[in-house]
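Hi everyone,

Forwarding the result from last night's run.
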Amino acid sequence: MEIATVIPRVTFQCRVGDEQPEDGGCPIGGEYVGKTSTELFKGKKSILFSLPGAFTPTCSTYQLPGFEENYQKFKDAGIDEIYVVSVNDSFVMNAWAEHLGIKNVKVIPDGNGEFTDHMGMLVDKSDVCFGNRSWRYACIVNDNAIEKWFIEPKDSGENDPYGETSPENVAKYLGLAI
């Protein structure tokens, strides 16, 4: 499959309105709200990045926190939104954002990997018991068109390389130093 040149039209099932019970446990009381990729990216210049999984080391230590910490610098450079997508369900994505204190980067759940597949980035990570997940990538999306791709090399010999998709590398493309 080739990599996409435009954002594929997919409906994400996003969980909203859940509240944490006082005695712990799973958040409850909310509902699923369908949000289309078209409505998320229409009329905006956005950064979209994807990673193998929420709560994984590189993603949770460097990539997501780096985009969050530099959110305002990206905004000042003309970026309207920053999104992170992963082949995880909405409960996991919301819990991950809450755990890391993410306030600005918006999480997108791609539980079935449909969006990731249409982007040309679905890979088999069964060797680490992940099943099908996303290859690590980032892109600049301008009104649903992909302006620039940042993709980790698949032939590096590493199972999960990181560098091309770092906030610093994306910032460099935008003329920012972070």
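The chain is about 25% helix and 25% strand.

Cheers,
N.
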